[in-house]
Design a protein that fits this description.
The protein has 2 domains: 66 residues, Arc Repressor Mutant, subunit A (Orthogonal Bundle); 42 residues. It is 53% helix and 11% strand. The chain is built from 5 helices and 3 strands; from the N terminus they run βββααααα. α3 crosses α4 and α4 crosses α5. The chain starts with a strand and ends in a 6-residue tail after the last helix.
């Protein structure tokens, strides 16, 4: 894994030919964790390129890797919204939403 200057809007990349993950400079620790998990998904799922289907699969991989179902269930009891869930779980809101969408978890109260 390397931190690098990436094009605007690009938070991370997996270089298949070099078997290397790049993370954008300036990410918060939570963003680093989530982007790294996403790019690891690309690597382990043998993605070459970045089709929409590959992006969805990498995001699902990251959500499953980073979210403990028991911790999510507990946080859903008191969290008022996805932002509170994400903060409690140490992930981005996008990771929470993807996990809920693909695992059928109801929205926070």
């Amino acid at each position: 894994m390397h931190v690098a200057a990436l094009p605007a809007g690009c938070l991370g990349a997996y270089e298949h030919e070099r078997e290397r993950i790049l993370l954008a400079r300036g990410l918060t620790p939570v963003e680093q964790r989530c982007v790294l998990a996403h790019e690891l998904g690309h690597a382990l799922l043998s993605h070459v390129g970045s089709s929409a289907a590959d992006e969805r699969a990498a995001e699902r991989f990251a959500a499953r890797l980073l979210i403990d179902p028991r911790a999510l269930a507990e946080a859903c009891r008191w969290a008022r919204d996805d932002a509170e869930l994400a903060d409690e779980l140490g992930v981005t809101i996008d990771i929470v939403r993807d996990y809920r969408e693909h695992r059928g978890v109801r929205r926070a109260a």
